[in-house]
Write a structure and sequence with these properties.
The protein is mainly α. The protein is built from 5 helices and no strands.
Length: 168
């Protein structure tokens, strides 16, 4: 038979083992909680990388503007006069900012859909409206040039008729 001291020692050792296991489980749980709390949220990640994102976006916008110079002067003038270049850059900026805000969960799904739909509608309406206005302006210019030529030919014909010469 075990003595009372041996029983008490064994009981204390068992209790100590249980407390040691419990203490280790609590330490593991605290480590997991601290890791979860210290993990960067999407907002923090985007905020930390914002200078890089803005640098890349700025470089892409400048490249788009300078890329126009690769084309012949007539096309360059058409794109710049129609506003397509600046509109493209603006849409790139808007889409990038909207994407960054949605990835960081600042903008929710329903708001994101509304913003993207609004941007797409604006771009499509501007493109169609400007194209129609350019076509009308070209038609007006062509009509004015044709009338000017007709008047010029008419004046030459009238002058030729008075002098008796043929119209050139």
């Amino acid at each position: 038979m075990k003595s009372w001291t041996e029983q008490q020692t064994q009981s204390a050792e068992q209790t100590n083992d249980r407390y040691t296991k419990l203490l280790q489980a609590l330490r593991d749980r605290r480590t997991k909680l601290q890791t979860a709390l210290n993990a960067e949220s999407p907002q923090q990640q985007i905020t930390a990388n914002l200078p890089l994102i803005l640098g890349i976006l700025g470089a892409a916008c400048v490249a788009a503007i300078l890329g126009v110079r690769l084309f012949n002067p007539e096309i360059q003038m058409e794109w710049v006069a129609s506003g397509q270049v600046i509109q493209f850059v603006t849409v790139m900026v808007l889409l990038s900012v909207t994407t960054a805000l949605s990835l960081s969960r600042v903008i929710q799904e329903n708001t994101l859909g509304t913003l993207l739909g609004g941007i797409a509608g604006y771009v499509l309406a501007q493109g169609v409206g400007r194209a129609a206005a350019r076509d009308v302006a070209r038609g007006v210019r062509a009509n004015q040039q044709a009338q000017a030529r007709a008047e010029s030919v008419g004046k030459k014909g009238a002058q030729a008729g008075r002098s008796g010469r043929a119209v050139e």
